[in-house]
Specification:
The complex is a heterodimer of chains A (about 270) and B (about 325). Chain A is mostly helical and about 270 residues long. Helices cover about 75% and strands about 0% of the residues of chain A. Chain B contains 13 helices and 2 strands; from the N terminus they run αββαααααααααααα. Chain B has helices spanning about 20-65, 85-90, 95-125, 130-145, 150-160, 165-170, 190-210, 215-225, 230-240, 245-260, 260-265, 280-290, 295-320; strands at about 70, 80. A two-stranded antiparallel ribbon of chain B has the order 1-2. In chain B, a hairpin with a 7-residue loop joins β1 and β2 (about 80). Chain B starts with 20 loop residues before the first helix and ends in a 6-residue tail after the last helix. The chains are: A mainly alpha (about 270), B mainly alpha (about 325). Chain A: Belongs to the binding-protein-dependent transport system permease family.
Chain lengths: ~270, ~325
């Protein structure tokens, strides 16, 4: 396929341009974080003497150690349980003959586009009545419910495409439904399961609304929720705010770069399926 | 056991050897009993997911609808007010304004990144496997990975009086238009919109690139031979091929616009005045600061209906063929 040199360069130039637009905000955040605390630096300027200690101070100010613990605790409460429950349900709805299957599917699909804001008010009173406000449970439990529609549909979409003969053969060999699930289908579904885990991890990490409504103490929130509190506290000290934001961003970026390939694939698929 | 197979006839549609109805009847009954028995493990597997979904989504959703008919401050006795909270959505300037703002944000959150992403993807398609393109996949995804809150903080600083945006305008000799973009009545909403556009652009572009990679190059060859220019090539070959991706991109970004909360909470808190107030933020203020639980719930119901009303037609349009 022949394309003129001009077309190629237009495309390349455009790509570089879009990449620059994407990157510059990060660069701006980084150079600003190196300015003297309390100053009001201008846009994109490398400081005369970089204040690397800003990051150390921000780490202390944001109680990063506690924050990381809290975030990881929430992740541990949400991701494994959500993946397990949705895999079980997706397997049943996609591969077994479940009575009332259609009705169940419609009910789950309804939840796909439901905005969190639509249920946050009663959720507050509900969590309060359980006595769980201001604990990590206040974020974990609602997220388990809120992730179910997407997660179940995701796993179902995978199981619908699994060949029937596979299960037939296992049944002939005398496998129970339980054995069929654990011994045959789970090992074969690892790619779909791990992509789902990645997506849920990211969405939990970045969850903001639930955190600010249900948990007052920033050190018991998700990372994103804590960042909101940090901004309220340090909003006037721009270099400090930028340093803190970068610290809170870093774990996400590291996880992203480590699993980049699966991430991009999962997010693109997740977009199409969601 | 596929769905397409006829149920009830264990012999798979072959004419039965015996035509004695009693045997038939017995067999059918045994079949039905077996199907139900077989269904129980399946239902048990769905149960945990259904339980959490019911308790933490469906129940609060029902409560939201219930609250929306009352005047309630969360503490004292609630007063039944019927549809009053709903009529106020159309008469109250602040409430209606938040809904109108959400629709205006669709332009920035959705139309801009989708259009620009489509054009950019069409131009970049030609060297989709080059090293530059591979690096770009990582870079363009960054805005999707970071919390929206962080995007809000970044851009709040970029658009501040002496942030990088004004620095750039001064550099190219447009010093006259510099201002505090997020604090100006006329520019706050578009400025917030720019943040949303920045977040979605990369995702849209990569979605379209993924869709375009499935197109047979011979189609483009044929179009070229027929004398198609870049524009008609886009219209005749590319667009029909990425129809599904287009539907997905529009759906995601429109939902993002209607339920925007994080970015606005961080960058403008709905101000100046109420110029960037959106339903999500207004629900939050009404419920947790002004203690108007009923009014907040009515707005929440309206927002939920709005999202469904916008998403369903888009999906129907994008889905040329039936797919699960």
């Amino acid at each position: 396929m022949k394309t003129s040199a001009r077309e190629l360069w237009t495309g390349r130039g455009l790509l570089v341009f879009v990449m620059l637009i994407t990157i510059i905000p990060f660069v701006s955040l980084f150079v600003t974080a190196l300015h003297a605390p309390g100053t009001y630096p201008s846009g994109l300027a490398w400081p005369a003497e970089p204040h690397w200690e800003n990051f150390v101070n921000a780490f202390k100010a944001a109680k990063m150690g506690k924050l990381l613990q809290s975030s990881l605790l929430i992740e541990l409460g949400v991701v494994p349980a959500a993946v397990l429950m949705s895999t079980l349900a997706g397997f049943a709805l996609g591969h077994l003959k479940v009575p009332f299957r259609r009705t169940l599917l419609v009910i789950f699909v309804l939840g796909l586009t439901l905005p969190f804001e639509g249920i946050i008010v009663p959720l507050y009173y509900q969590i309060r009545s359980y006595g769980l406000l201001n604990t990590q449970w206040a974020i974990i439990l609602p997220l388990l419910g809120l992730f179910m529609p997407f997660a179940v549909m995701w796993m179902r979409a995978h199981f619908v495409n699994m060949p029937e003969d596979l299960s037939e053969a296992a049944r002939v060999d005398g496998a129970s439904t339980w054995q069929l699930f654990w011994r045959i289908h789970v090992p074969l579904s690892m790619p779909a399961i791990s992509s789902l885990a990645i997506l849920l991890f990211l969405w939990t990490w970045n969850q903001f609304l639930l955190a600010i409504v249900l948990v007052d103490d920033p050190s018991k929130r998700t990372m994103a929720g804590a960042l909101g509190a940090f901004q309220g506290q340090w909003g006037t000290d721009i270099p400090m705010l930028c340093a803190g934001s970068l610290l809170i961003l870093t774990p996400t970026l590291l996880v992203f770069l480590a699993f980049q390939r699966q991430f991009v694939a999962a997010l693109l698929q997740g977009a199409v399926k969601g | 056991m596929t769905d397409s197979r006829r149920t009830g006839e264990s012999l798979g549609g072959r004419p039965s050897v015996s035509d004695r109805p009693a045997i038939h009847e017995a067999r059918r009954r045994a079949d039905r009993a077996r199907r139900l028995r077989r269904g129980i493990p399946g239902l048990a597997l769905v149960a945990p997911a259904a339980f959490f979904y019911a308790v933490f989504v469906l129940k609060p959703l029902a409560s939201t609808i219930q609250y929306s008919f009352y005047d309630w401050n969360g503490i004292t006795l609630a007063k039944w007010t019927g549809l009053e909270n709903y009529t106020r959505l159309f008469t109250d300037k602040e409430l209606l304004g938040s809904i109108i703002n959400a629709f205006q944000l669709i332009l920035y959150f959705s139309i801009v990144p989708v259009t620009f992403g489509l054009i950019a993807a069409a131009l970049i398609r030609k060297f989709g496997t080059s090293r530059l393109a591979l690096v770009s996949r990582t870079v363009l995804f960054l805005p999707q990975v970071i919390p929206l809150v962080a995007a809000g903080i970044m851009w709040t600083w970029l658009m501040a009086t002496n942030g990088a945006v004004n620095q750039f305008f001064r550099l190219i000799g447009l010093g006259g238009i510099t201002r505090a973009w997020l604090g100006d009545f006329n520019t706050a909403l578009p400025a917030v919109g720019v943040i949303g556009a920045w977040v979605s652009l990369g995702l849209c572009m990569l979605l379209f690139l993924a869709g375009m990679s499935k197109i047979d190059p011979a189609l483009y060859e044929a179009a070229r031979l027929d004398g198609a220019g870049a524009i008609s090539e886009l219209m005749a070959v590319t667009l029909p091929a990425v129809r599904q991706e287009l539907g997905v991109a529009v759906t995601i970004t429109v939902i993002g616009a209607l339920r925007s909360f994080d970015i606005i909470y961080i960058s403008t808190q709905g101000g100046p005045g109420n110029s960037t107030l959106v339903p999500g933020l207004e629900i939050y203020y009404l419920a947790f600061f002004q203690r108007a639980i009923g009014q907040a719930s009515a707005l929440a119901v309206a927002l939920t209906i709005l999202v469904l009303a916008v998403v369903l037609p888009i999906n129907r349009l994008a889905r040329g063929k039936e797919e699960s």
